[in-house]
Amino acid sequence: MKVTVELDCTPEEARRMIGLxxxxxxxxxxxxxxxxxxxxxxxxxxLQNFTKIIAPMGEAGLKMFSSFVTxxxxxxxxxxxxxxxxxxxx
Length: 90
Hints:
flat
């Protein structure tokens, strides 16, 4: 049996429905602080140091993320069906 439920709601309504907190003010504050920092960065070295702070795994983390995305794209292009899953006849 297959049941499909379609909800027509805004992202805000969906957030409230599943009980996620409202982080709009936190996001605004974060964006404002990041903008201030990036405007104050006068050299490439400052930006590199900043990226090391926010991405502790650095290049290794970027490679891991890249391989994850590449793997996901490969799985998506195969049609999302595995050759080992077959329908049983009734």
